[in-house]
């Protein structure tokens, strides 16, 4: 892991130029990511999508961003900003390898269940029966809500994994390496 990260993510350097030509130190960049992570983590972890709200006694549909995904992305950005420090800390490298393995397992498990259901749906007949619907229609309707529940469980487990398995090690590393000290 340590060999690939330094070659792949050479973006994290001691000084980086911003779009406006100002140079920000690595410490400032990490501090900005950490502050943004705290800000996003303090928001309600909505799964996103279209939600109905009551505004001026009228029901209005509004698009809500996926706060869980936003929060996870900020944890990943902090991880990327800390790659240089992660490589120097064997305990963190080991913990992140375990985290990555759990993440791969979770994604694989979700993908396999979803593919099994879709394969079952694809194998069903499209022939319309006397009642006016096909065997495939019945199965799709039956499992659509199941797939939605499965997706919600996956998203919640993913968020939990990032918050409980990755974030504590990143915060510990910030403290150990004295990165955010005044």
* Topology, number of strands: 4
User: Beta-strand level of the residues, as a percent range?
Assistant: 5-15%
- Please give the alpha-carbon distance between the first and last residues: 31 Å
Largest sheet: 2 strands, antiparallel
* Rounded mean pLDDT score: 83
What is the tally of helical segments? 6
In words, what does this structure look like?
It is a single chain. The chain has 182 residues and is mainly α. The chain has one domain (2-176). It is built from six helices and four strands. The chain has helices spanning 2-8, 26-41, 67-81, 83-86, 90-123, 135-176, and strands spanning 15-17, 23-25, 49-55, 58-64. Strands 1-2 form a two-stranded antiparallel sheet. The chain has a two-stranded antiparallel ribbon with strand order 3-4. Strand 1 and strand 2 (23-25) form a beta hairpin. Helix 3 packs parallel to helix 6. The longest helix has 42 residues, at 135-176. The model is unreliable at 1-19 (pLDDT under 50).
Question: Nutshell version of this structure?
Answer:
The chain is mainly α and 182 residues long. The protein has helices at 2-8, 26-41, 67-81, 83-86, 90-123, 135-176, and strands at 15-17, 23-25, 49-55, 58-64.
């Amino acid at each position: 892991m340590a060999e690939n990260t330094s070659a792949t993510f050479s973006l994290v350097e001691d000084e980086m130029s911003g779009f406006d030509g100002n140079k920000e130190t690595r410490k400032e960049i990490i501090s900005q990511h950490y502050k943004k992570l705290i800000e996003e983590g303090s928001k309600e972890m909505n799964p996103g999508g279209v939600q109905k709200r009551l505004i001026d006694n009228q029901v209005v549909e509004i698009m809500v961003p996926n706060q869980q995904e936003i929060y996870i992305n900020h944890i990943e950005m902090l991880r990327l900003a800390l790659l240089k420090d992660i490589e120097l800390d064997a305990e963190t490298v080991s913990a992140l390898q375990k985290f990555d393995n759990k993440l791969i397992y979770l994604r694989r498990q979700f993908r396999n269940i979803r593919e099994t259901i879709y394969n079952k749906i694809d194998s069903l007949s499209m022939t319309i029966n006397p009642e006016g619907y096909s065997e495939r229609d019945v199965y799709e309707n039956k499992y659509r809500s199941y797939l939605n529940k499965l997706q919600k469980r996956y998203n919640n487990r993913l968020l939990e994994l990032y918050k409980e398995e990755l974030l504590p090690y990143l915060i510990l590393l910030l403290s150990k390496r004295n990165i955010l000290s005044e």
